[in-house]
Amino acid sequence: MNALTVLASGGDEFQAPGLELFDFPPLFAGGPEWLTKPVVFAVFASVVVCAFFWWAFAKPKLVPRGAQNIGEIGYMFVRDEIARPFLGKNTDRWMPMLMSLFFLIWFWNMFAVVPIIQFPIASHIAFPAVLALFVYFVKVYLGLRRQGPVKYFTNMIPKGLPLPVYFLLVPIEYLSTFLIAPFTHAVRLFANMFAGHMILAFFSLVGFWFLFEKPTAAGFGVGLVGVLVTIILTALELLIQFLQAFLFAMLAAMYIQSGLEAEH
């Protein structure tokens, strides 16, 4: 494969993109290490989401039009497909949080295919980790407040099982609830955005390299395949970006409900 890529590119070796895609220096020389492109666009997305829904609902009309119409469609989707199936009567109380999570993460993800930005914010583990920890602390707080410190921990364990089973079940249940659940909540979003960005970058670079950077007769077919696969994967990535925002918010609703009411 290495020899073929060298031959197709006219003697120069094609270098696949790597982890340098996720390494961003400070925005300006001497600036703080944390002030990078992902941080700026993460904040930018937050401002856009807040501004849009403020614009949509600041002066609601009986017959919605324009921004209010779009905002209500988004609200009903989150309410009916994410919140209500898990939260039931508690849906309205938690809608602001779930709306914010869903649309913020969706915006973060869509930055991967926006020209110039071309980077999914959630592909940096710090961003989904902060959101997952926030949901986790809300869940634990609600559990301790609504069920009490003792019942919150005992309600996690099913009743009426043989005593030996509890020696195996209790550690597994607590490990799953307090470590694995928040970890997988963050990593699921991060891993999908990270992998999707790497694959898109690889095939788009293949197309650019063999068609524009080092065009040769032998490499034309390879470059054309790279462009076609990039187009197909971009469409698929748009779907995945939406689904990952949906899954993150859905799990948040499920975790909140587990804090509000006993699981067993």
Strand content: under 5%
Number of strands: 0
Number of helices: 8
Question: In terms of quaternary structure, what is this?
Answer: single chain
- What number is the mean pLDDT? 87
Largest sheet: none
What structural category characterises the helix and strand content?
mainly alpha
Shape: globular
Number of individual domains:
1
Unreliable segments of 5+ consecutive residues: 1-11
Q: Roughly how much helix do the residues carry, as a percent range?
A: over 70%
Taken in chain order, the helices and strands follow as HHHHHHHH
The CA-CA distance between the termini, in Å, is 55 Å
Radius of gyration: 23 Å
Observed structural traits:
single chain; 264 residues; mainly alpha; globular; cell membrane; CF(0); ATP_synth_F0_asu_AS; membrane; hydrogen ion transport
What this model shows, in words?
Helix 4 (91-110) packs antiparallel against helix 8 and helix 5 runs parallel beside helix 8. The chain is mainly α. The chain is 73% helix and 0% strand. It has one domain. The radius of gyration is 23 Å and the shape is globular.
Set out the fold topology.
Blueprint: H1 2-8, H2 37-57, H3 66-87, H4 91-110, H5 126-147, H6 149-154, H7 163-213, H8 217-260
Helix pairs in contact: 2-3, 2-4, 3-4, 3-8, 4-8, 5-7, 5-8, 7-8
Brief overview:
This protein has 264 residues and is mainly alpha-helical. The protein has helices at residues 2-8, 37-57, 66-87, 91-110, 126-147, 149-154, 163-213, 217-260.
